[in-house]
């Protein structure tokens, strides 16, 4: 009996992660209309212990579209579905993390019926072009907003009649081309790879006819007459990296993108021994090249500085891309003791949160870097983390917290004697005098720099605010897109960047969760039509000058609200 009591007491005081809390995530896959989709493969991946989520489990939906994953540890998970039956999964901008799910949640995944682009590709004499890739490239979204950072496009090969059919196409505006990089993603080379791309109907990119794709609608008759124009080559070699990365490194590769759109134009694996690479079939234009090399060792990843080249009627040779080690940020997450504990019975663990490194975006940034400034990671059971594979630049660390009870109190560099704790326990978080406020200043990293001793301090007692924007006058009309700001009203919090919040809304609703208690101002501002919709701009509060302007505007608007510890404000109305 004494032994059983001792075991029980030990279990009660162990951190949640040490007790190996297990649970289930359930869900359902449906269409936009709510019709269940059966036989869909659903994949569960975890960020825990790796900066790249690895697939842990797969499940097939039943006749009602249901799926479940059982016996899961208390971590943060992502869920993806294979596009099936012509349906399209939601897409996310490059710097917006996918939704994170945790045990106990029930998930509804909605797939949209994709459109279809189909037609026939022929030579100038009308004969069919057999076995050539046709690519559908999205240039604007369904609302007409330009897409400035291109993701890999859809490509299909023509059959023996020269007919192609690209299905599962998201709504939006497209250009369609022959030989625009399809082989680089599907692993097959064709005799036409050296030809410059031909766009529908028989045009260059500048004169291409755009195609409007609607949900579930087939766009047929998109016939292309191949121009049979040879393109130009860009070649060079990849240097550096071999001495420092060792035998566990993977092959180096070069990537070429059009500038400034960032459209993928080719991927080339470097030749063994020489590091040589070449790209064929490129039309005149501006391009950007970057080399990278992965490694089984997380610290062995290498990346070159982007190199800009111009193709003007001839080949470009002698390009050198020098690999350099990538940077990293390491530290730990601690839970600070708080007089405000929203739910003493909460069983959230630090392993259930995710940390997101986000590179500050600048107008001069290259497409190559813009698609590399985010790494997502969950801390281990001791609260320790290491965000690696970071290109040089200034970074901020954001987070996705489990539930609404916690908020981020501080992000600082410098060692801390505190240890992570489970919710409801007390662990002191000491802060040495020489620490740097990384939330305010960010972390400026050089190539290969290893920033350690970062402390991410979490506290209990968070407040949340949900509401809707309403016209100041009855019958008034709101702008199509608004951004709502939450600004700390206390003078002592002027530079507390963690107290600032932004929410983009197109229907007037807004949500702010996991915020420190205190007094705030609310402010709504229209979003400029020219602002891109394919990525999330850096928060205004990150810039000291813009933060001051925002604060003055919010103070002048005089819309104040006080959020108390653990308060959940709902249905708040903000007049605009």
Report on this model:
By secondary structure, the chain is mostly beta strands. It is built from six helices and 40 strands. It has five domains: 21-111, Immunoglobulins (Immunoglobulin-like, Sandwich), CATH 2.60.40.10; 115-225, Immunoglobulins (Immunoglobulin-like), CATH 2.60.40; 245-323, Immunoglobulin-like (Sandwich), CATH 2.60.40; 327-460, Immunoglobulin-like, CATH 2.60.40; 463-575, Carboxypeptidase-like, regulatory domain (Immunoglobulin-like). 7% of the residues lie in helices and 43% in strands. It is globular, with a radius of gyration of 26 Å.
Structure summary, number of beta strands:
40
Terminal-residue CA separation? 67 Å
Assign the CATH class of the largest domain: Mainly Beta
Please compute the radius of gyration using only Cα atoms. Answer: 26 Å
Estimate the mean pLDDT confidence.
Answer: 84
Q: What's the number of structural domains? A: 5
Which secondary structure elements does this structure contain, and how are they paired or packed?
Blueprint: H1 2-13, E1 22-31, E2 41-46, E3 54-60, E4 66-73, E5 77-81, E6 87-88, E7 106-113, E8 115-122, E9 133-140, E10 154-157, E11 163-169, E12 172-178, H2 182-186, E13 198-199, E14 211-213, E15 218-219, E16 224-225, E17 232-239, H3 242-245, E18 253-258, E19 264-269, E20 276-282, E21 285-293, E22 302-304, E23 307-311, E24 316-325, E25 327-336, E26 354-359, H4 367-370, E27 374-377, E28 384-390, E29 393-400, E30 406-413, E31 436-437, H5 438-441, E32 443-445, E33 450-460, E34 463-470, E35 482-488, E36 501-505, E37 509-515, E38 518-526, H6 544-557, E39 560-563, E40 568-575
Parallel strand pairs: 1-7, 8-15, 8-16, 17-24, 25-33, 34-40
Antiparallel strand pairs: 1-4, 2-3, 2-5, 6-7, 8-11, 9-10, 9-12, 12-13, 12-14, 17-20, 18-19, 18-21, 21-22, 21-23, 22-24, 25-28, 26-27, 26-29, 29-32, 30-31, 30-33, 34-37, 35-36, 35-38, 38-39
């Amino acid at each position: 009996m004494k032994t059983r009591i001792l075991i029980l007491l030990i279990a009660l005081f162990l951190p949640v992660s040490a007790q190996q809390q297990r649970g289930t995530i359930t869900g359902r896959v449906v269409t936009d209309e709510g019709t269940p989709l059966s036989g869909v493969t659903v994949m569960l991946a975890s960020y825990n212990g790796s900066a790249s989520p690895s697939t842990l489990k797969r499940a097939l939906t039943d006749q009602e579209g249901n799926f479940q994953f059982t016996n899961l540890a208390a971590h943060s998970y992502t869920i993806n579905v294979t596009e099936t039956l012509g349906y399209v999964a939601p897409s996310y901008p490059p710097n917006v993390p996918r939704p994170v799910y945790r045990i106990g949640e029930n998930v509804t995944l909605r797939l949209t019926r994709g459109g279809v682009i189909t037609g026939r590709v022929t030579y100038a004499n009308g004969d069919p072009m057999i076995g050539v890739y046709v690519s559908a490239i999205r240039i604007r979204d369904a609302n007409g907003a330009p897409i400035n950072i291109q993701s890999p496009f859809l490509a299909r090969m023509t059959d023996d009649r020269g007919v192609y059919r690209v299905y599962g196409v998201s709504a939006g505006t497209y250009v369609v081309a022959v030989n625009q990089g399809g082989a680089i993603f599907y692993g097959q080379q064709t005799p036409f790879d050296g030809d410059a791309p031909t766009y529908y109907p028989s045009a260059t990119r500048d004169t291409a006819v755009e195609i409007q794709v609607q949900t579930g609608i087939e766009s047929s008759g998109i016939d292309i007459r191949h121009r049979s124009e040879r393109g130009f080559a860009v070649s060079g070699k990849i240097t550096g990296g071999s001495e420092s990365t060792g035998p566990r490194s993977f092959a180096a590769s070069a990537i070429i993108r059009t500038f400034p759109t960032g459209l993928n134009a080719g991927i080339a694996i470097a030749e063994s021994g020489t590091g040589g690479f070449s790209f064929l079939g490129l039309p005149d234009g501006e391009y950007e090249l970057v080399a990278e090399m992965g490694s089984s060792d997380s610290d062995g990843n290498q990346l070159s500085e982007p190199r800009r080249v111009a193709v003007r009627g001839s080949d470009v040779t002698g390009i050198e891309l020098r690999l350099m080690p990538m940077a990293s940020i390491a530290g730990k997450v601690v839970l600070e003791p708080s007089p405000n504990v929203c739910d003493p019975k909460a069983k959230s663990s630090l392993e259930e949160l995710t940390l997101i490194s986000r590179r500050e975006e600048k107008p001069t940034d290259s497409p190559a870097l813009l698609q590399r400034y985010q790494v997502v990671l969950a801390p281990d059971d001791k609260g320790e983390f290491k965000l690696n594979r970071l290109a040089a630049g200034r970074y901020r660390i954001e987070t996705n917290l489990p539930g609404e009870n916690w908020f981020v109190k501080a992000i600082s560099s410098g060692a801390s004697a505190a240890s992570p704790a489970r919710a409801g326990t007390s662990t002191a978080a000491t802060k040495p005098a020489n620490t740097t406020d990384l939330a305010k200043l960010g972390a400026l990293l050089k190539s290969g720099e290893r920033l350690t001793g970062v402390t991410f301090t979490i506290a209990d007692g968070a407040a949340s605010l949900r509401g809707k924007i309403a016209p100041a006058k009855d019958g008034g009309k709101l702008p199509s897109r608004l951004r709502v700001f939450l600004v700390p009203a206390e003078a002592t919090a002027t530079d507390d960047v963690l107290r600032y919040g932004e929410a983009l809304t197109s229907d007037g609703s807004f949500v702010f969760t996991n915020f420190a208690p205190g007094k705030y101002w609310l402010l709504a501002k229209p979003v400029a039509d020219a602002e891109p919709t394919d990525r999330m701009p850096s928060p205004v509060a990150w810039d000291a000058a813009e933060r001051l302007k925002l604060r003055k505007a919010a103070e002048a608007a005089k819309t104040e609200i006080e959020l108390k510890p653990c308060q959940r404000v709902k249905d708040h109305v903000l007049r605009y």
